[in-house]
Every structure is written in C-alpha cells, then in structure tokens.
Design brief:
- By secondary structure, this protein is an alpha/beta fold.
- The chain is built from eleven helices and 14 strands.
- 39% of the residues are buried.
- The strands form four sheets. It has a six-stranded mixed beta sheet, sandwiched between helices. A four-stranded antiparallel beta sheet has the order 4-3-6-7, covered by helices on one side.
- It is globular.
Length: 309
C-alpha cells in the first residue's frame, strides 16, 4: 500500500490506483488507463493545471545579494560553504538540490533564524547584520518556512491572528501597546477570501485546517505584505495538488508584482516549472546556475547528485 501526493510516483510504481477525496472514494483506475491530469482531477474534483502558466520574466534591479555566505549546522560543521548568489526584482531563482546539502541552513541564515559565520546578505542595497527574524522581516524579507507547524503557525491561535503573526504590533493592527482587534478581524476575513482558505470562519483556530489550507495561511500572510524579497522553502511540501496549483500561482503573481523570489525546493519539477533561473546546490556550494527555460533535467540531476559536469 503506497500513499503519496506525488502523481509521478503513482504512475511509476502502482498497479492499481485508488483516489480519495474528502474522506471518500473518488475513483479507482490503473496507470495504463489514466495519467497525472486524470488523477489530479479525481483528487480535487475539477480540472487542475499541472504546468504553471507564466509570462516571461522582466528582471529589474538586484533585490537580494548573497556574498561568500558561510553557515554552520547544528553540529557546528560548515553546511553553507561560501555561497554567492543574487535575485533580481521580478524573477524567481530556484535552488535545486538533494535535501541535506545546506539548503535549510541557507534559508535560516537569510531569514535570521541562524547566525552566519561569514559573508554578507544585502537586501535592496542595504547590508544586513546578524539579526533576529523580526528585524529581517522589517528589512523586507518574507519567509515561507519549510516546516509550517514549527516555524509558520501557532496552531492554537485563530486564523486571523496567524495572518498577522509577524506584524501584530504594527499599524493598523496595533496602536502602541493596544491591539486593534477589529483591524485583525477585517484583515483575516479579507485574506481568507483572497487566498481561498477553506474554513467556516477566520476566527477558527489554525489547528482546524487541513494541511493545504494551513499552508495557504502562511502564504497569505507572507505574500500579502508585498515585501521586496520572498524566501520560499519547500512551499508545497505535504499539500494536495489543488493547493499546489494555487500556491504556485501566488508565487508567480508575487514575481510579476516585482518581488525577488528565492525558491528552495527538493522537487526538481517544481523548480523547473516556477523558476526563471536555477542554481544547483551540492555539498553546501552552488555548483552551477542555468536558465530554467530549456534546462536539461538530466544535467541538473547529475549536478544535484554531486557528479562532475
């Protein structure tokens, strides 16, 4: 019995396929009788666009620049070994790599969740010192974390409160030390509609949501602020195919509004579908950067595995 969200895996290994939707049987088929699009439609109940439709990027000035970044992991070993990269406004740079090659430490250093031991991080022309996550946010960095339960949400809080977690003490949600609960409530109601968060009420606790809708709360909070830099780490991990489609479109929309988006994902399909440029990470280093359009999947896969060019 093989249970997965990944349609490519289902087609590759299954003899029979059972599709569930809303706790009920939605269909039974075989890989020979169906394809990824058919399975996605059964899973969601409507046609799903599996390939992201996007216009050509129009890159502007550099919004995020990283120079010779060095970061230690939890064992005090160097996990990020002198990485340099840049992301321009209006483009998505995808970081592709096998998990455990420094991606987590890279993201945590950029979002001030982990101190760096060397190198520079420059946002919109301003060098950032080692700081706290709150300060990184104020400097213009949105962060969609890879672990939404640990770093993205407070499950016991309401959906509306989670939608202002990183600006609860700022106008219009607070006046000095006094929170404006009416503004928090109105913001929650609006973002629940705009980002299609499926819930009876924005006042319900975040714990009442499905995984895909919890991720939409994180995406709504981070992208609705229109900050110049978006760092998205594994933004669709563990969510259903319908939510994946929606989240992908929100990242493209953020790019088209002028954000510099750094996408870190272990899913090569996701990186190649969303990114305008792809940086391949292996052994804590960027080993190659290529244009996503026309990129050779096998070539990138070999680099991810640590093989020589």
């Amino acid at each position: 019995l093989f249970i997965t969200h990944k349609l490519r895996e289902v087609i590759a290994v299954a003899d029979r396929v059972v599709v569930l939707r809303g706790g009920k049987l939605a269909g039974v088929t075989t890989p020979k009788e169906s394809n990824e699009a058919d399975l996605a439609q059964m899973m969601v109940g409507r046609e799903v666009v599996l390939r992201v439709e996007k216009s050509k990027a129009r890159p502007g000035d550099i919004a995020l620049e990283v120079k010779d970044l060095r970061v230690l992991d939890d064992r005090k070993l160097e996990a990020v070994k002198g990485i340099s990269l840049h992301v321009r406004k209006g483009e998505i740079l995808g970081v592709a790599g096998v998990e455990g090659n420094g991606q987590r430490e890279l993201v945590e250093a950029l979002c001030a969740m982990r101190a760096r031991v060397g190198g520079e991080v420059i946002v919109d022309g301003t060098p950032l010192a080692n700081m706290r996550p709150k300060q990184a946010h104020l400097a213009g960095v949105s962060h969609i974390p890879e672990d939404r339960e640990k770093d993205g949400l407070v499950s016991a809080y309401s959906i509306a409160d989670n939608l202002v977690l990183n600006r609860f003490d700022q106008a219009p949600f607070a006046r000095g030390w006094i929170r404006d609960l009416g503004a928090v409530d109105a913001n929650g109601e609006q973002l629940v509609k705009t980002y299609d968060i499926r819930t009876p009420s924005h006042r319900n606790p975040a714990s009442s949501l499905s995984g895909g809708n919890r991720q939409k709360v994180v995406v709504a909070r981070e992208l609705s602020q229109n900050l110049p830099v978006v760092v998205a780490a594994q933004p669709t991990r563990g969510v259903d195919v319908g939510s994946i489609e929606f989240i992908h479109q929100q990242l493209i929309d953020a790019r088209d509004k002028g954000a510099a988006v750094l996408l870190v994902s272990a899913e090569l399909d996701e990186v190649l579908s969303l990114a305008d440029r792809v940086a391949v990470i292996s052994g804590g280093k960027i080993v190659a950067t290529v244009d996503a359009e026309g990129a050779d999947r096998n070539y990138i896969g070999r680099l991810m595995a640590g093989l020589k060019e």
